[in-house]
Design a protein that fits this description.
single chain; 3 domains; 7 helices; 16 strands
């Protein structure tokens, strides 16, 4: 007879494709051909076993002879022969096998339906994720298009025409974007550098650039002739930019950037001294005292905005850890309030 053995736990399987011992679905069980019934009862149709001998107790001599004959016959042939007891049909056993096969088919169909349901659910989830990703990508593309259109519109609104320094000087008209003080570039630069050196500072590098534009949308003109200097003292460094009108050479303003506040205030004092010598600001202006005094707009540790004589002054100190330099602005009155950098 054939016996199915589970390849996972090596136990005899009661069902064709399911092991009730380890609860596994077994598509390919181990099939064994056996002719013995170890630890099992004889089938009802068998009177004798070729290994255990006769189990019949004869009640008569004829019965003994018949039994002996059958015993001899069974010992001389295999139990799987055509005339063996194992080949005799048992209706009850056949019904049981058909019932087990039917249950196995039902279980297989249920497992197939469950697997199909799981696959359909996974496919639906994947479709949802892909649809949401496409929707997000579409919204991102629309937002990018809107921002690009805004930038292009702003570029058209603030499109400008660049002029050469010679064209601006030939026209001789001061720009309309910045305020102006009567001190010229020659006067301020001439007095600023010696004042810096007297304070123990050294000028490590310097340069000069100019930017001259006419904004087509509103006709605003911006003429800048800038002098910049890299200055150091006691291991601390700062950069100074002095800005003047290209057409009239009048003072626009000053920008100081660096990490050391004391050095920045010192350089601003030197520029204010040069403006005093040129008669552009009040003689009694004490820049350091005003800087550390009361400001019109106090931003706490981040800086503030105030007015000193004919100057708009703004100080910006980024938070510690930002990695950004402090910025100090001194401009002729009107530029910062006009541009919305600070207000009165």
């Amino acid at each position: 007879m054939k016996k199915n053995t589970c390849p996972v736990c090596d136990q005899t399987m009661k069902y064709p494709h399911y092991c009730s011992h380890c609860h596994k679905i077994v598509l390919h069980p181990n099939v064994q051909e056996i002719t013995y019934f170890l630890n099992e009862r004889h089938p009802q149709e068998e009177d004798d076993c070729s290994y255990h001998g006769s189990t019949v107790q004869p009640s008569a001599a004829a019965g003994q002879a018949g039994s002996s004959g059958r015993k001899q016959v069974y010992q001389n042939r295999t139990v799987s022969g055509a005339g063996s007891p194992a080949s005799r049909k048992n209706p009850a056993a056949g019904n049981a096998r058909r019932a087990k096969a039917s249950k196995s088919r039902i279980r297989t169909v249920m497992i197939a339906f469950a697997a199909a349901y799981v696959l359909a659910s996974v496919f639906s989830i994947i479709q949802t994720i892909v649809r949401k990703a496409n929707e997000k990508e579409s919204r991102t593309a629309e937002a990018y298009t809107e921002v690009r259109e805004e930038i292009e519109a702003a570029s058209e609104e603030y499109s400008s025409c660049e002029l050469s320094a010679d064209e601006v000087r030939e026209a001789g008209t001061a720009c309309s974007q910045f305020g102006h003080l009567s001190a010229t570039s020659q006067e301020v630069v001439r007095d600023f550098l010696p004042a810096v050196e007297r304070e123990g500072c050294s000028v490590d590098s310097e340069g000069q650039t100019d930017y001259n534009f006419v904004y087509e949308a509103d006709g605003v003109t911006s003429y800048q002739e800038n002098y910049w200097f890299d200055i150091s003292r006691y291991g601390e460094t700062a950069q100074v930019q002095l800005s003047f009108d290209t057409a009239t050479e009048e003072f626009h303003g000053m920008v100081v950037t660096g990490y050391d506040e004391d050095l920045m205030v010192l350089l601003a004092e030197c520029a204010v001294t040069a403006l005093k010598d040129a008669g552009a600001v009040d003689e009694d202006l004490d820049f350091r005292e005003s800087f550390y005094g009361t400001w019109e707009q106090d931003w706490g540790s981040r800086g503030g905005y105030t007015q000193m004589s004919m100057l708009d002054v703004m100080y910006w100190a980024p938070q510690s850890g930002d990695g950004l330099e402090n910025e100090l602005y001194l401009f002729a009155r009107g530029y910062m309030t006009q541009e919305g950098i600070a207000g009165e």
